[in-house]
Design goal:
45% helix; Rossmann fold; alpha/beta
Length: 210
């Protein structure tokens, strides 16, 4: 199968640190499906309007109200670069959001990248990001003080221990129930998220039948 041959509306599900963002980029390179990260959308909004974070406490690990994040996703998937398919990362996080999404689009699959909490904490605690190009540095690449692009490398507030713990608690409480929602629809796929990036990607391609 060549890149762009098949449209796909895929949801990536998994705890923080499961590698959804990395795998989304690999899927884009392989098949042309555009990764859409709710976290990236939110951070872009905060960059333009810092009061947005102050209002909702995003950097403290809080989630946006359903209506606001749903509207942000709805507007994004209407853009032209989504016409050949896309991958949603970080949305939906709750059954209510999944139900609303089903009124907006036809989801092809929901893919769970599963890793234990201990592994999530280990990965996130070691994760740093460039403010310029958004490159992620982690366990396999020590973060420099300055990225090759010239941007400052920093640790996000939501990757610090207290916020990580809260984010994982929210994931288990609010996001895990949607696994059953998609399983009942026959759309849930699962892969073990432990292993190298390349190993996990091969698992994903296998369950997608690619």
């Amino acid at each position: 199968m060549q890149s762009g041959d098949l449209e796909m509306r895929l949801i990536l599900i998994g705890p923080q640190g499961s590698g959804k963002g990395t795998q989304g980029k690999l899927l884009q390179h392989e098949y042309g499906w555009l990764p859409i990260s709710s976290g990236d959308l939110i951070r872009a909004r905060i960059k333009n309007d810092p009061s947005f974070d102050e209002k909702y406490g995003i950097s403290k690990g809080n989630l946006l109200p359903d209506d606001i994040i749903t509207q942000m996703i709805k507007e994004r998937i209407k853009e032209k670069d989504c016409e050949k398919g896309y991958i949603l990362d970080g949305f939906p996080r709750k059954i209510k959001q999944a139900e609303v999404l089903d009124t907006m689009i036809k989801v092809d699959y929901a893919l769970l990248i599963d890793v234990p909490d201990k592994e999530s904490i280990k990965r996130l605690s070691a994760r740093w990001q460039c403010k310029g190009c958004n490159k992620i540095y982690g366990l396999n690449e020590a973060p420099p003080k300055v990225c090759p692009c010239g941007g400052e490398v920093y640790q996000r507030e939501d990757d610090k221990p207290a916020a990580i713990k809260k984010r994982l608690e929210l994931y288990h409480k609010e996001t895990e129930p949607i696994l059953g929602y998609y399983e009942k629809q026959g759309k849930l796929l699962k892969v073990n998220g432990k292993g190298t990036v390349e190993e996990v990607f091969e698992k994903i391609k296998k369950v997608l039948g690619k």
